[in-house]
Design a protein that fits this description.
- There is one protein chain.
- The chain is of the alpha/beta class.
- It is built from ten helices and twelve strands.
- A six-stranded parallel β-sheet has the order 2-1-3-4-5-11, with helices on both faces. Strands 7-6-8-9-10-12 form a six-stranded mixed β-sheet, sandwiched between helices.
- Helix 4 links the parallel strand 3 and strand 4.
- The longest helix has 17 residues.
- It is elongated.
Length: about 300
């Protein structure tokens, strides 16, 4: 007869709106849409509507979006924007809205989180390069304000040590953001300080693309002169020139698990926070090869 339920009216009775707010740091980054799809798929099946907001990695925009979500009385939040020592933690506690972190942690605060095993993933890349014969390996690290950047940098140190390879101070440069231009700038600094390197482990695929740009600027070929690995296996990484060897993260699964954790927290307030780490896998493509004679000579 054309009747449709009024969720706002139902919410007055149940004190729930069946809406969830999602904060995304950069919707233009190909890493995040599959995570968003995973979140929405699980929430839709459970009868929830997802509302997303893009923050462009801006703390003020994140705070404003959080307040707008609170004004809409969302039942829960999924945050892909968290930084270490997250300044919004106090605001989250004051709102009393269940929240789950995805892809990142804040190091404290008792918030459930779903993320990849970043250190293990970087270890896969380092071991692959070492197996090919590389000993002079550099790392374009992610921003250290994010748990992903810190964990992958620490994983790089651990993996080098495990393989008996030197961890030089000049072999690591942290990018200022997870963007192509930032990756190119970091690769420039890295190559200036460590010109004898034969391989670069980049903390994500966009940073790896930046490394490609800097190698091209120097008229160095990948992988003939310098091998490059990425992290995330974002869409179209297999179409890069050369196709990128990278660490695959199960993006959609990550989003789905985050949504399930949130639904659990909504249904059972006070449930102890838990962390789910998903196992990454290495995808070998054309950007890695044994070190060339020219590169070994420095």
């Amino acid at each position: 007869m054309g009747y449709t339920p009024d969720p706002a009216a139902a919410g007055l009775r149940t004190r729930r709106t069946h809406t969830v707010g999602i904060l995304i740091p950069d919707i233009a980054n190909p890493f995040f849409p599959p995570i968003l799809r995973g979140i929405e798929s699980v929430l839709t099946e459970a009868g929830y509507t997802a509302i997303s907001a893009n923050t462009d990695n801006d703390a003020d925009r994140a705070r404003d979006a959080l307040d707008r979500f609170a004004a809409r009385r969302v039942d829960g939040l999924v945050l892909a924007t968290a930084v270490r020592g997250e300044p919004l933690l106090a605001r989250l506690r004051a709102l009393g809205v269940p929240a789950v972190l995805v892809n990142r942690t804040v190091g404290a605060g008792g918030i459930p989180a779903v993320l990849s095993d970043d250190a293990a993933g970087i270890g896969l890349a380092v071991n692959h390069l070492a197996d090919l014969g590389h000993a002079a390996i550099g790392h374009v690290a992610g921003p250290q304000r994010y748990s992903t950047g810190a964990a992958r940098r620490a994983g790089f140190h651990t993996a080098l040590k495990a393989r008996g390879l030197p961890a030089r101070r000049e072999s690591i440069v942290s990018a200022r953001s997870y963007e192509i231009a930032a990756g190119a700038r970091a690769a420039r600094t890295l190559l200036d300080a460590f010109p004898k390197l034969t391989a670069i482990v980049a903390a994500n695929d966009l940073l790896a693309l930046g490394c490609y740009d800097e190698l091209k600027r120097r008229r160095l070929a990948c992988p003939r002169d310098v091998s490059v690995t990425g992290f995330n296996d974002m869409p179209f990484a297999d179409r890069f020139a050369p196709p990128l060897t990278t660490v695959r993260v199960p993006h959609r699964m990550m989003g789905g698990e985050a949504a399930r954790l949130l639904l659990e927290a909504i249904a059972n307030p006070g449930t102890p926070a838990r962390e789910i780490r998903l196992a990454p896998e290495l995808v070998v493509r054309g950007s890695t090869a044994p070190p060339a004679r020219r590169s070994l000579k420095g």
